[in-house]
Amino acid sequence: MKLLENKNILITGGSRGIGKGIVYKLVENGANVAFTYSSSSSVSKEIVNDLASEKNNIKAYKSDASVFEECEVLIKNVISDFGDIDVLINNAGITKDNLLMRMSENDFDSVIEINLKSVFNMTKAVQKIFLKKRSGSIINMSSVVGIKGNAGQSNYAASKAGIIGFSKSTAIELGSRNIRCNVIAPGFIKTEMTDNLSASVIESWNSTIPLKRPGETHDVANLCLFLASDLSSYITGQVINVDGGLLT
Ligand code: NAP
């Protein structure tokens, strides 16, 4: 029996990068997967078609995670299509980097709304389902930047640090109902998000990573697999870095 067989998993931002890697890993391990995207409709269709030969149920939904009402509608639709949700992975995120001196109010607000408020929106919407059945696993995607900070990323760091506080509180609040909530803090993972970085920035990051390489999406997906599965049933309220030792 596969690790995630009979589990219905909802992940935000599954159309690209880390989220896409997680979708493939979950399906490979037997899960039924519902994933969201914000604008990548054709790419999302391709992913669903690519995975259609698997026995698992897989479906993509266009849904803006920063909009409270859209998250409520999404949960209703996923329940109607899949029957249940066992695991929620809040992965959707953006960056709008700039030095504080040049950062606009809009760039601060949109990063907080898409990265942090989305986690509140989705967790609030799914908690009724988890509370009713007295089980559930919530996995929230933070960043090492939320722990350490980073010049030019005050908005992003604030959103990712906020996710950690939110997740620890949720773990304490919902633990008695067997609902777990953990955080993944990736370091430098190769995706479209990091493809915009210059070669010199990439080189300098690599030199400070003890494992001397950027992470791959499957490095993060492997931890997701563990946290989504029953292998992690006594683990909650934790922040786990996937960073090649960067914060060591
Ligand atoms: P990415 O390649 O830019 O992909 C972002 C995903 O989020 C896409 O699927 C995108 O959908 C979706 N998305 C964006 N805004 C959304 C919204 N409002 N509602 C719903 N979905 C939305 O990013 P990534 O590098 O894979 O990062 C994934 C997560 O890991 C993020 O939370 C990021 O902060 C975190 N992280 C990444 C790294 C890294 O090195 N890459 C390091 C630490 C943490 P569309 O395709 O439709 O735009």
Write up this protein.
This protein is α/β, with parallel strands linked by helices and 248 residues long. It has one domain (8-242): Rossmann fold, CATH 3.40.50. It is built from nine helices and seven strands. The protein has helices at residues 17-28, 41-51, 68-82, 105-133, 145-148, 154-174, 192-195, 199-208, 217-228, and strands at 8-11, 32-37, 58-62, 87-90, 136-141, 179-186, 239-242. The termini are far apart. The mean pLDDT is 97. NADP nicotinamide-adenine-dinucleotide phosphate is lined by residues 12-19, 36-40, 64-66, 91-94, 114, 141, 143, 186, 188-189, 191-194.
Number of helices: 9
H/E series: EHEHEHEHEHHEHHHE
How many runs of DSSP E, i.e. beta strands? 7
User: How would you classify the helix and strand content by structural class?
Assistant: alpha/beta
Strand order of the largest sheet: 3-2-1-4-5-6-7
Euclidean distance between termini CA atoms: 36 Å
Total of domains:
1
In terms of DSSP E residues, the strand content is: 5-15%
What is the CATH homologous superfamily assignment?
A: NAD(P)-binding Rossmann-like Domain
Major sheet characteristics: 7 strands, parallel
**The CATH class:** Alpha Beta
Categorize the overall geometry.
globular
What is the CA-atom radius of gyration, in angstroms? 17 Å
State mean pLDDT (0 to 100 scale): 97
Bound molecules: NADP nicotinamide-adenine-dinucleotide phosphate
The portion of residues assigned to helices is: 40-55%
Q: Which stretches are poorly predicted, pLDDT < 50 over at least 5 residues? A: none
